[in-house]
Amino acid sequence: MVSTLGEQRAYGGSTTHDVTNQAPPLTPYDASEDTALLEGVRREGAGWAEEDLRRLGRQAGSVQAQEWADLANRHEPELRTHDRYGNRVDEVEFHPSWHHLMRTAIAEGLAASPWADDRAGAHVARTAGGLVWGHTEAGHGCPTSMTYAAVPALRRQPELAKVYEPLLTSREYEPGLRIPTEKRGLLAGMGMTEKQGGSDVRTNTTTATPTSEAGVYTLRGHKWFTSAPMCDVFLVLAQTPGGLSCFLVPRVLPDGTRNTFRIQRLKDKLGNRSNASSEPEFDGTVAWLVGPQGQGVKTIIEMVNCTRLDCVMMSAALMRKSLVEAGHHARHRSAFGARLVHQPLMRNVLADLALESEAATTLTLRLAGAADRAIRGDAQETAFRRIATAVGKYWVTKRGPAFTAEALECLGGNGYVEDSGMPRHYREAPLLSIWEGSGNVNALDVLRALSREPDTAEALFSEFARAQGADARLDAAVARLRNRLSGASQTTARRLVEEMALTLQGSLLVRHSPPAVADAFCATRLGGDWGYAFGTLPEGADLDAIVDRALPGGN
């Protein structure tokens, strides 16, 4: 009897729709099952968070959370400028899956809650949580990141911080526009860039006019990129009589009226499609001064340091998620008489990707540790954080697109279809190099740190010294880097920062990773025994040890 299901027809003892040699669904899986991640969390002082991290990892890899991630991107946010009567409302509507993701992230402390946690390692725990929860989707990481980053900037105006910080550090997610002080928790956004300036924020033309009330201004202007317009408050740059200054702009004023925040459109972006990025116009918009007049960049720079770390974190999370997907496929797919994972060339590709992923994760957690200790007053870590965050932001985010493309290729045609989720990761990857300062901006920031803050270079080389003598290739790379500093210029800035990043990653792996990982990284990234694409590790690299460490659970 012929089956009607799928119109299958018996032919030669089989059916046309038998599915063979395909990987089963990856979900459910544990996104925290990452040896390099767990080792780094303990090393950087957040071992106390491991139980929660493992619980979050199981949730991130659940069928439900992965479905939320897919739906939030398939059903993009919609802008509603007016209500049915013609009144301006300037609201953005999201699919319920977005709210599920946001609610979980806020409850798990992935926004600003570490600022209210006195435990050493609290900021490391948040970063580790982002590395794990980042296995879902990246878009909702934007408002959580900005909310986290807003707190240190807001503290430059203590009377405002007293009102808003307890709400920003809350673990309650309460969407919808209402009077901020009447909500259980708040989200913060930021508006710096304008169409004529981009990263050159000092060319901003938005103006701030003082009112009769001390510290209160009205804004007029147009922002080119303001992400997460559904947030409750925003840190905005505008020109005052005293120069470029920072302001707090609430969407709803204390008397319950809507502040003027006219959303002209949502950006139609390559990726990050679950997240709304907007162009708002200010016209008589009420704003409160944060920090002194004329010190807007200085006030908001701490916010940028925090969001740059989150760009590194999310790039590392995308790498890890893509590697897990590629490894899962290779373990279940056969070609030329063997499982892909056992084919020597595929194993080389997976091992090379594993090296890159471990280097990114290890550096991310080291940067988070530096941030945690700098916040607690460690001068050495403050100097290290200043330069190393810009170095890491430049390099790790640059590696993301090439990495996700190679991981996608491991799945072949299966990875090129939307159902696999890999195209979403691939589209997301370039964003993290662009936001919070593109590659050139971060490279120039490194040069600025070297010229204006000599202690940053000393802190970086002190970090290298911790691994001195452990690997000759690493020692040679440190010597080359020291020589290169004397001829640093804008023309060669990218090359300089690239060498800084690779040397820093190499020094961390030599100190903290197994010999197979450290040796292969130093041989390729520092010793030059490498090709121009992933999968070109040299003969003699311990591929089995590298792959087994990165993809636990057997072959």
TrEMBL record:
<comment type="similarity">
    <text>Belongs to the acyl-CoA dehydrogenase family.</text>
</comment>
<dbReference type="Pfam" id="PF02770">
    <property type="entry name" value="Acyl-CoA_dh_M"/>
</dbReference>
<protein>
    <submittedName>
        <fullName>Acyl-CoA dehydrogenase</fullName>
    </submittedName>
</protein>
<feature type="domain" description="Acyl-CoA dehydrogenase/oxidase C-terminal">
    <location>
        <begin position="294"/>
        <end position="450"/>
    </location>
</feature>
<dbReference type="InterPro" id="IPR052904">
    <property type="entry name" value="Acyl-CoA_dehydrogenase-like"/>
</dbReference>
<keyword id="KW-0285">Flavoprotein</keyword>
<feature type="domain" description="Adaptive response protein AidB N-terminal">
    <location>
        <begin position="21"/>
        <end position="175"/>
    </location>
</feature>
<dbReference type="Pfam" id="PF18158">
    <property type="entry name" value="AidB_N"/>
</dbReference>
<feature type="compositionally biased region" description="Polar residues">
    <location>
        <begin position="13"/>
        <end position="24"/>
    </location>
</feature>
<dbReference type="InterPro" id="IPR036250">
    <property type="entry name" value="AcylCo_DH-like_C"/>
</dbReference>
<dbReference type="InterPro" id="IPR009100">
    <property type="entry name" value="AcylCoA_DH/oxidase_NM_dom_sf"/>
</dbReference>
<dbReference type="InterPro" id="IPR006089">
    <property type="entry name" value="Acyl-CoA_DH_CS"/>
</dbReference>
<feature type="domain" description="Acyl-CoA oxidase/dehydrogenase middle">
    <location>
        <begin position="190"/>
        <end position="283"/>
    </location>
</feature>
<keyword id="KW-0560">Oxidoreductase</keyword>
<dbReference type="InterPro" id="IPR006091">
    <property type="entry name" value="Acyl-CoA_Oxase/DH_mid-dom"/>
</dbReference>
<dbReference type="InterPro" id="IPR041504">
    <property type="entry name" value="AidB_N"/>
</dbReference>
<dbReference type="GO" id="GO:0003995">
    <property type="term" value="F:acyl-CoA dehydrogenase activity"/>
</dbReference>
<dbReference type="InterPro" id="IPR009075">
    <property type="entry name" value="AcylCo_DH/oxidase_C"/>
</dbReference>
<keyword id="KW-0274">FAD</keyword>
<feature type="region of interest" description="Disordered">
    <location>
        <begin position="1"/>
        <end position="30"/>
    </location>
</feature>
<dbReference type="Pfam" id="PF00441">
    <property type="entry name" value="Acyl-CoA_dh_1"/>
</dbReference>
